Structures
1.
Amino acid sequence: MSIVLVGINHKSAPVEVRERLAFTEDACASGLRTLVDGEVVREGLIVSTCNRVEILTETASERLNETIERVNQFLGGSNTLPRSFFQAHLYQHTDDQAVRHLFRVASSLDSMVVGEPQVLGQVRRAYSIALEAGTAGRVLNRLVHHAFRVAKRVRSETGIGANAVSISYMAVELGKKIFDSLAGRTALLVGAGEMAELSARHLVNAGVTRVLLANRTEERAGHLATELGGESVSFERLSDHLAEADIIICSTAADEYVITEQMAREALSRRRNRPSFFIDISVPRNIDPAVGNIANVFVFDIDDLESVISSNIREREREAERAELIVESEIMQFQQTLRVLDIGPTIGALRNKLHDIARLELTRQRNRLGPLTAEQESAVEALLLSTVNKISHPLLSHMRRSFDASDAETIQAWRDIFGLEE
Amino acid sequence: MRSLLLAVLAAYVVSAIHAVLAFLNKRRALQRVSEWAMAAGFVLHTAALIADWAIYGHYPLFYLRETLSFLAWTLIASYALVLYRYRARPLGAVTLPLVSLLIFIAVITRSATPDRAQATTMSATWLFPVHTTLLLFAYAAFFVVFLASIMYLLQERELKLKTFSAFFHRLPSLTTVNEIATSSAAIGLTLLTVGIATGMVWASSRDGRLWHNDPKEIFAALTWLLYVLLILHRSTASWRGRRAAWMGVAGFALVLLTFFATRLMGGYHVFGIT
């Protein structure tokens, strides 16, 4: 049995190619039914996201090349594309390589931003589509579940997903660093940009209980306020509201400082020096950089956030090296799982054993046959072997079926009956 | 009792190594080992102190060896409290190695010609154990203030500079370390006040004088003043954050001076040194 993975991702192909090869969920299901014929391709799964298309299949070891060819044809056929269009961008992995690739994808080691967890959900979705389409069988079931396990281990044992790598999460992470828990905190949005809104959503999810919105056009603020469950406050009385807020996110289109050092100082003294955290995601900046010099006030502008993010990404990449070790050790474990599942060697061993018996009997009785020509001799042998094959055929197919049903007990029983080593 | 103390040392060393590794690797399993080893060490340590008391007949806080061991014991107790209350694990990565070092010194220190008579007379009064125990616990509390302040300053600096070291994410939040520092300072100051008061009562019962102008007393008074200021400023909220944290560091420098004052400058508090 062999595992074959053919795919393209954001590293191997530009978006123009990826978008043409991508599958919708429906296309995945119907595509799988075409691709998996039970003969050449025995099992299949398609992971299709904006960054990758991965076609994972299972086949008999001797039909490896046929399978690769079939998957290639399938990719071209189902998207009506000439193979020259995508062929150069494809990567093809078999067996351990394919297993490694899937484990790395599921653990988000192969992602554009290492450690982002979405891809695991996408693999999960792909798997349930394959289950519904009936194309995930005993090998892929085990493989995919093992991949989920690897992803979980990587996530809990390394810091790969630890530090924020987006501006909106940065607000939550730094907020927690300053305030510990965000529960019961108040956030103030000055200006209602998209990024500010997204950050506010993350803050609310992280426990911030009160959101104040100050916008020049009160209509927009009111609209956002209902959506976020916040209160719209007057922009003119910004100075008053500054004192109430622990986290202030500024994103107006103003070209002067909306929050001056004086305002921040007053707010701080009204807050009795409780720390406050300003995030300025507007360009030009809306918060006077001098505010950052005040004790107990922390100001991050867009460049500060970007630079922290890039250092967090480097940190994740360091953690990814540890994750790779986990992947390697899990590949070894999976090999063992496969060995138990793999019917090929057992059947091969059984067939050899039967053939050996036939040959031994032939040698024993050879003298009685008298002199034979070489042709006659090989005809006798062929006759014996084909008889053995014909008789053993139903036996072997029954064996194959019990393997297909992943019936480990029966598999072991077969091995015991014929005294076969694993 | 050396063998028991050696066992204590072993447990603390195991705990310290795991605490440091847990801090570096963020592995939960390591942290658990560290905490169990610490708990085992603490139980043995308590037993060792009680055994010392029973065998030598004086409160085990007289000779240098005993003082170091007792100080280590108060440090562990304080760290355990902080751990329980705030889950502030990184504290252990500093406290546990320090405790191991103290126990190590205690193990290799031999009290030369122990002055049994003096030790027994002094610990005959209940004021001696109360005075010394309270003060050692106060020192331990101030050590916690010191560590929390250092953690505050490191993180505050990184937040201001916007460059984060690998350890940044492993330290407790600013609010947490601030709370740890505030509450430990309050506890420490209370212990220090009562400790100094019992010392005065004891001194006056010995020679009728409350104050001897000895270096330890002077430094203790300065320490007391500084922490009173710290608490006052924290409670009026005008001195939160960095300045309070710097006071926590300065206060601990004074604590160290107080602790070693006698050794460096002699004075009324000289006894049982060796």
2.
Amino acid sequence: MIQLNKVNKLLPLLLAACMILFSHTSQAAIDTFEFENAQQEKTFHELTKLLRCPKCQNQNIADSNAELAKDLRNKTYELVKQGQSKDQVVDYMVARFGNFVRYDPPVTPATIFLWLGPLLFIIFGLLVLIRQIKKQPAKANNLDDQEQQKLQQLLKQHAKDTKS
Amino acid sequence: MLNKRRVLTLLVPFIIFIIGAIFLATPLLKGSDPSKLDSALIGQAVPEFTLQDIYDADKQYDASIFKGQKMLLNVWATWCPTCYAEHTYLNKLAKQGLYIVGMNYKDDRKKAIRWLKDLNDPYKISLFDKSGMLGMDLGVYGAPETFFIDSNGIIQYRHVGDLNDKVWNDKLLAIYEDMQ
Amino acid sequence: MLPEIGQFSLILACILSLLQTVYPLYGVHTGHQGAIRSAKIFTILQFVAVATSFVILSYSFLINDFTIGYIATNSNSALPWYYRLSAVWGAHEGSLLLWVFLLSTWSIAVALMSKRLPIESVARVLAVLGLLAFGFYLFVILTSNPFDRTLPYFPIDGRDLNPLLQDFGLVIHPPMLYMGYVGFSVAFAFAIAALLEGRLDSAWAKWSRPWTMAAWMFLTVGIALGSWWAYYELGWGGWWFWDPVENASFMPWLAGTALIHSLAVSEKRGVFKSWTVLLALSAFSLSLLGTFLVRSGVLVSVHAFASDPTRGLFILGFLVLVIGGSLLLYAIQASKVKSRGRYQLVSRESVLLINNILLIAALIVVLLGTLLPLVHKEIGLGSISIGEPFFNRMFTILIVPFALFVGVGSLFRWKRQQLNDLKKPLTMILILSALSTVIFLFTFAPSLTWLAVMGTFLGFWIIVGVIYEIYLRSTHRHRFSKGVMKLGNSHWAMSFGHFGLAVMIIGITMTQNYSIEKDVKLAVGEHIAFEHYDFHFDQVKPHNGQNYTATMGVFTVKKDQQAIAVMEAEKRIYTVQRMPMTEAAINAGFTRDLYIAMGEQLPDGAWAVRIYYKPFIRWIWLGPLLMAFGGLLMLCDRRYRSKKDNIENSENSENKPAPVGGSDA
């Protein structure tokens, strides 16, 4: 039985190294920024929830402890303090990292289905409902095949009984 | 009895599903990595910057160094194990005559200089981006990354991950050769 | 030796599942009674085999058998025994074993509790379940074997369970969730069996209903548990992120909710039959899709298991066979179905269908939002992200018509409802809910926002609607106190279900609009105050656990000058994985949570601390619990009890003229 103590020591180190590169710690990343007014603070918080950490496993920059997320938070703070609006900061980030970095997708011919899809389905569904109602037979056909069979049997039986 | 029209209507879910399945299968068959991002700067010039030389703090560079010939910009750091793995290949490419500019990203100057001394310096110019400001302007999200820049200073492509024989021969060499 | 037995048992279960599929179907086709009856026997045997495997894996975890690769990767000898057992389903291979074990559990339940069904129907259902199991067994044995050994070399200790998973949440969330996911396979099997037979009468809907309801209940609880767990574990006070894996669980739930309502209509009125079947097929298909998304690596997610394209392709292949096959069968067989009932545009049937449409529209929102980034990238348009802002906005829009109908839908009569008759009830409900909203917001809201007013109003609209409807139903023929006793369990199920939804809506509204988050720098001895609360940073002290070391921050909380709690927030470092973790301190309350998370120590000795005030956040999980309780009540309804009660009940059903509100759900 070979005891791989060495491997065991390396393993956590390797893991830690990987984590620097592919950080996914979902820890509360707490910075202590100070803002001039409540509106700026609100914009900052909205932005850090809207912007995505480009290298994390699906986290916004508010929740990630990754180095890059920290840099982006600092940059966001800097821009907000300069007085830039939410849209301006988003544009700044998109210019550098692409649309991946915003959790609110832009409306393009490709993404329009996000909104059209459900809308069309609702319209389609309502149309089908109305058509189904209109298509209903004037006289209620209350029996399905199984019950129809049973009815026929009973009628046959009744005919037999009344005959005898 | 099959009501043809009804069957066709009811086949819609099936058709939608098959189309969906094809879209799900494609990335698996291609082996594509959903966390790899395309650069937002393709077709644009390298953003303006002022950075120190890694060896000499008094020497500074700006975006003009990317004009005049086609080249690679390699983003690296001593804390990045994959950069260690790709370094030998960079040396090989440099020996072949490729013009490579290095950008040390968010690192310790002394460590970086020692690294270049120990492993060889394949870079014609070595930028020192301690704060990561050029990195952020370039949209760097994880070392190592390599930018392909043409003689007009326009970014033509960005490769994420290490450079090695396979990826160079399969894909990147063609991109490099196509560049002006 | 034991792991080999476990593996062998798994292979045995695989073979038995194949027999469970083939032989009974052969029996049904040829009329061979013995073959038909064998379905039950094979199901029981399969259960014994897979249970053996599961128990062996669990036992191996308990005794720290690190010769098994899966255990070496996910456990450690310093891990407390209850986490060692939960680690069984902590990663890919083991969670699949849990999946297949639960599938067998549901199958044996169907086999043993379907005495009143024709034996051919049960045989078909068990055969379908067997086929599903067979696919999963193949997947596990060929690509994800939990019993793979690391011999001849093996580590002396394991790599430890991910610290994030070392929590009570791991003990209950996955089992509950999987019970739901897997439970929808029963509804799926019933639907396929009905399609195979070519018979979609109301009997199918009646048999299918309790199983679907049970699965839905588990899924509701499972999702709520996941949300609650994320909230207290992750340290950012969030309870839902619209992460692809979360969405993967939410989609079957949406389909399932539409299904339980549609089944009710199909059973009682004989309409919507094709639609209900499609929903039954969809619910489980979405469960399978979820399995694919979580394990294939096509989407980026914090929750995803270690991904592998080979596994992904296998699951996708399985998906194409199962879902594609079922949808083809649907197209052919469902075209022969004729609905026998009639109903007008203004009727309970319509209202239920409209809300079904809204639920599926919501499902489409989630589906598109989750998958579009993948499609967008595949067609070469680059990477995009779709997250919270998008989903929240769409759901805020959809909830409005949905909640409005939920509140008053039960007042609509079956077949035909005169709008004039509803004028008085609707006006009453409008006035009462508006009043309740005003009083509630006046008491609990520090300011008013449009969204808060709308959300609260919708919640109270439903609550008032539910109470009013109970009142109307109870007083239809008797005095209230007598009438309320006569309401059946299934009626209470409906009331609790809808009431739970309202509670959740109010909880979400209040939390989203009135939460306060403060990231501050506090040195020991300092304090911060807001919203009637004062937080005083008392001290920092070490506090170590079985497999971690920790620093604990102690805070005294005062409300309006009165000390109400001492909160202890920890920053832990787990010894093996060297992973830092925050254990937030939460002071839970019915109307608000206080939440403190410790950050890093700053250079000047002070600490970064995050303090949250979260109003009504517990209501977000109380709601689903009430909904699930409603589901439980439904299962306890008299119609599912003894045969004698059954006859009584059927005499009381739709043949009698319906009072306002119609017969019960």
3.
Amino acid sequence: MLTSLFLAVAEAHDAVAGASEPGLVEKFGIDWHYVLFQGISFLILFGVLYKFFIKPTTSAMEVRQQKIESGLKYAEDMKVQLAKAQQETAALIKTAQLDSNKIIEEARKTAKDFADKIQKEASERANDQFAKAQQAIELEHKKMLADARTEIARLVVTTTERVLAKKLTEADRASYNETAAKELTNV
Amino acid sequence: MAANKKAQQLARQLFKLSIVDGAISAERVSGVLGYIEKTQPAHQLTVLKSYHRFVAAELAKSQAIVEHAGAVSASILQTIAASMTKKYGRTITASTRANPKLLAGLRVRVGDDVYESSVSGQLGALAASV
């Protein structure tokens, strides 16, 4: 088509260069009626296309665009909420960590106090038992000494009684009886 | 239980009747025994036992039993009886009872009271003090 157009332009140039020739419109055979009908046909076709294809397509595109925009906005909101939630979570975790550290520290302190208390009580109990054992040993020792003293005294008395029973004469007894009578009458 | 108590009360009343001038009277005792034999009160045996215990206790108060190891002269006995009579404010007679376990010395019992001056007693006191 371009080739023919160039050929036509060249011929027209030759014609102008030669002598008086017909006009361009006549040369191309343009009829204003046809041009008018073609314009109307084009408008009708454009209207049909616009009503049934272009307009629904643009509407669908606008709806989709709105959906995409709302989705993006929703995503942005979600992103902000997520960041906020992450911050809150981090704050909660930090608080919980601090609380847990505090609880652990208190538990350690309580355990240490309890262990110290138990140790102290055990030590006191052991000291008490040791003191009681010492007292018991001391009492047992004293009792043993007292028993030994009593037994020795008993043996001495028994032996003395046996010796005196054999050695005392009747004169000795009579003399002792007189002394005893004086002692008893002076009571 | 109540009957036993009544019997003891009766025995105590009979014992009080047996005392004349602070001493047991043999005549009164004979009279009390005759009364018991004649009337035969309830729980007669219990009354007699209680009466005997009261009389024995009262007689023991007026009697000094002198336990001795070795010879004891009559003068010693008289001295002890006089001393106890003076001490208790009633007539106390002395009677002897041999007790070789004393080794030497005397032990005088007047009722529940005991006075002792003997080798055995001194040895016992020595053993107790050790």
4.
Amino acid sequence: MTPERAKQLDRLPWFEVRLPRARGDFTWIYLWGAPLRVSHWVAALSLVALFATGIFISQPLFVTNGEASSHFLMGRFRFAHFLAATFLIMAGIIRVYWLFAGNKFERWSALVPFTRRNLRAMFQFLKSYATFNSRLQPHFVGHNPLAQVAYTSIYVGTTIMICTGFAMYGQSNPGGIFYTAFAWVPALLGGLQNVRLVHHLISWLYPIFFSIHVYLVIRSDYLERGGVVSSMFTGGTYVSSRDTFEDCDVGGQPSVPWRNGAHE
Amino acid sequence: MASTKVVIDPITRIEGHLRIEVQADAGKISGSWASATMFRGIETIMTGRDPRDAWAYTQRICGVCTTVHAIASVRAVEDALDITVPRNANIIRNLVHGMQYIQDHVIHFYHLHALDWVDVVSALSADPDKAAALARSISPWPNNDAAHFRAVQVRLKKFVGTGQLGIFANGYWGHPAYKLPPEANLMAVSHYLEALDWQRDVIRLHTVFGGKNPHPNFLVGGMASAINLDETATINAVRLADVQGMIRKAKDFVEQVYWPDLVAIAGFYKEWGAIGGGVPNFLACGEFPESDPRDLKSLYFPPGIILDKDLTTVHEYDHKKVAEYITSSWYTYDGGDDKGLHPWEGETNPKYTGPTPPYEYLQGEKKYTWMKAPRYEGKAMQVGPLARMLVGYASGHADIKELVGAALGKLQVGPAALFSTLGRTAARGIETVLVARKMEDWFGQLIANVKAGDTATFNKDKWDPSRWPKKSQGYGYLDAPRGALGHWVQIEDGKIARYQCVVPSTWNCSPRDAQGQMGAYEAALVDNHPLARPDQPLEILRTIHSFDPCLACGVH
Amino acid sequence: MFIRSAEPWLDGSTLGEHLEESGVSRRSFLEFCAEMAVILGLGSAAAPSVAQALEAQQRPTVIWLEMQECTGCVESVLRTEAPTIGDLVLDVISLDYSETLMAAAGHAAEKARADSMAKHKGSYLLVVTGSVPTKEDGIYCTMAGKTIRQHLEEAAAGAAAIIAVGACAHWGSVQAARPNPTGAVGVRDIIKNKPILNIAGCPPIGDTVTATVVHYLTFGRLPASDHEGRPLFAYGNRIHDQCSRRAHFDAGQYVENFDDENARRGWCLYQVGCKGPATYSPCPITQWNQRTNWPIGAGHPCIGCTEPYFWDTMAPFYQRLPEVGGFGVEGRIDSIGATLAVGAAAGVVAHAGMTVMHQIRRRRSTNQLPESGSPSSGETNDG
Ligand code: HEM
Ligand code: HEM
Ligand code: NFV
Ligand code: SF4
Ligand code: SF4
Ligand code: F3S
Ligand SMILES: [Mg+2]
């Protein structure tokens, strides 16, 4: 491994675990800082919870019998919903901070893939997914451009959910902080009914995203042997120093078929 | 003497915006034009909406005869979707509509109509003892005593003394057409005030079953107020007892105050039995189904048509023979403005062609009103209490014959006197008595059902739109306080495709049609109609008010 | 109630004097004030100040203008209890113009209004029901040959304050519902230079109107209001948070069909479309017609009649959420959502399968099976 490469690796934030250096011609690349990993998993879990409880709120599946005073079913679901919401917010705050403090794989710039090069790569990904042919895929250590837009849209969607959610939440205490802080939401959407509607509609984004997302990460893990999945736990992944990547230089030679025009 | 143009705008003590123009010659009226000056376009607003919501929108056609458009609407939708409502729901609707009749008619008599016959100022000079004697001679009503009348008179005296006359300012007090002795005036004023409190209490029946008044809630397929004697939040014994109390209170007031007052006052104005008859044809669509609205046999007030004041034959009423003309109205029809359209082909395309405001006269304009002109087989019709009582009388309805006979006897006039301004006002009182008595029957039926274990108030079979035909159309009739009302609905793919209403006041306040036939208001004003002082058109108010105009209803 | 007296209110005499004449006991008067103070949400502690203020008053002039409306709001005020309409008109205020109630008609009525407006210029209270049609220069509602808009502007000019009673007067109510054929708008859209209070509802509860008038007489100003101009003493809280059926909501006890078992137990109407969660109104507290009942109390979902443009925003009335492109969300749209979610899952499985097939096929064609063990760039590249 080149000295520049070593320097580059040394430049990682202070609190990162010291990195194993090159093993044979494999390099350990540090991708996800602890803040990202923590916020990812916290968000992932609370979003699953929010969707589940939210659906119950919108369609109470079963009714309880007997004295109202001896039950609190909807109450519990709403409480769980708001609790999960709180965790989501905390994860969100960490992530937002990390959008600016994180490394280049974590920065906001890693979520807006709109350079000509990235757009081309994105197209290649679509093509490869459509033809089930992973050889057409450009190589990325971090999020590939397509994943980037998916994540960005999840972040945007979640921001809307949080705003509409708290706008509704605030109604039970008019003049309270949530009511006041989010008063602009009903004003913008044209009334509480629309706030509720938007909140309800966007909630369907999550179950759809979930399966596709999980599939794609596991898929790339299997195809690229990159250990992508584990990267969300350990924070990093091994890459062959002989390989080249769109988003990171590990010193290898260009060998990606779609770039030197090779075909099957 | 040259004919003078008289304009009365606004006509007050009615619902809505009505303008009357007449030509007066030598104390008589020779020409008349009735103009409705407000339009909202509610029929247009209905299209594309959920038929189950329609009742709420159409109910806002009018808040005076609240409930009537809601019931007509749910009946129309239920007819289109072939829904039969549970017996209890039908009875509850009768109770609600019945109380609407009673309250609406009493308010009309005392608060909208009375000041045309009663001189408030003259009441100041009445002798409370004589007034009490007069009142007691016609009714056992407890408040008909000297102390009460004196208190009212003092209150009135001081009120007038303030110079802040409020709603009584600029009345035509002292007009020669006022005929009542001061004592009768005082009695009437006292009951004017009592009626204000009474109406507030009895109308609560709407609140028990519909949650509020004005504009109680209804439901396609029945009523939303579930019955459960063992719950606090449902129709239970407490609420039913409350309802029973209101029914009694309503009946007492109608029998002991409204009806006696009406007969007494009418006695001083018999000449009005020969004035303001107008359109000689009468239409009643029938009301108060005791089983299903589609079972016309079960209607308490029978449907029917009377032509040319001929009480020997009652013709069958068929809604398919109704058509609306716009020859003199500010609308256009795609097929030409002289056509008449049945509501299922009806159109509502507003097109104002009148003078730009501010303007002085509408008479002479080809089109001069927002009111359409409904006609039955091309004939102008009169609808309302008189139409109902005549149809009932002519078809031998026992209760109606008895009470109409009694009234004619008391006033010593023949049936001919019914075709008049006085006749309309009397018929309204007669039917109020009948309905007030009938309420107890309906209430009894409800109790009997509940006793027998039938508490159903809603039929959910067709609630879900997936159970509806792709296309359907329905007719919802209802003989409202002011007369025959119809809602016609067409439903496509679960949404309203067309909605048309032909309303009592549309019939009565209609303008000239393609053949130049005048509507009921206009015809009445030129039927042997006096006008002593063109600058104080009291007589015109009497005849117009005898129809109990509702303009918001008529135009919608 | 104290105002039911034989003694009317003499011009110039204060209410205090008036009450002595009428022999109304101090006690019953204070009771009324307490009643009012509570309705106004001031707490009975404020009763003395209400009393003081009322005693000092003289019958103030009220002009009531009716525009494009159904008159339901007028009727609602006829149902008031404290004070009753009779007491209100004879003893509390001087109602100098009201088309529904006044004796005079035509020119005489117009004159009554003109005279009063001239005499009390700048001091009278203007009560307005109904909306103003703006299309076609306002010819959809005229009176005495003039557009109602012109009448409104004239009446507003000399008014101290305006009370807009009902959904019509503030949002145009039903006639402003899509497609609003007459371009109906509320008073606030026409009159910009006067304090306007919004007594929301279709109709509002009559006592809310009279309470507002009393507040105005008592404190010489309109009551504090929310962002929709609705007085906080009545519209400060959400129906859903004051509802008698809320315990059932929290418990998870819902009416699923009208008149079902649960309806007969008075359970929550959330699932049949109740708009209580999005509606601010005094209904659950003051209730209607002398506390007889209220819509939800009578088993029908709230349709949100005190909220902006509720005829469009709260419809359909029997579904919790607005429709999207004419389709019910709880029904059609949700099943689309669910289908997409399940579809995504299924698609993912299918895609995985295809990918594996593709792998195997390619390996066969390049008859090179992947050696297990440490990955190599070669493999990363050709699969
Ligand atoms: C992004 C993840 C979220 C999802 C998937 C989600 C889902 C849902 C769903 C489906 C509903 C039912 C809406 C209806 O049909 O009425 C709902 C209601 C609600 N959600 Fe969320 N939500 C999320 C985030 C939030 C957040 C961050 C808050 C903030 C406090 C929130 C607060 C609420 C509230 C207050 C309600 C209405 C509950 C009620 O009125 O009883 N939600 N949510
Ligand atoms: C609903 C649940 C989940 C949500 C909403 C979610 C969301 C996200 C987001 C927003 C990112 C981008 C991180 C960033 O740069 O900000 C991400 C990345 C990632 N997630 Fe998840 N995630 C979920 C569940 C999972 C699960 C169950 C796994 C493991 C199987 C997983 C594995 C990963 C991996 C490996 C990455 C990095 C992949 C890449 O580089 O593109 N996620 N996820
Ligand atoms: N005309 C009329 Fe109504 C009645 N009665 C409606 O159907 O008043 Ni508003
Ligand atoms: S707000 Fe509603 S009740 Fe009041 S006048 Fe308008 S439509 Fe009628
Ligand atoms: S009935 Fe309506 S307002 Fe009452 S608790 Fe249920 S949803 Fe809320
Ligand atoms: S519909 Fe209106 S009357 Fe009250 S309960 Fe809802 S606000
Ligand atoms: Mg019509």
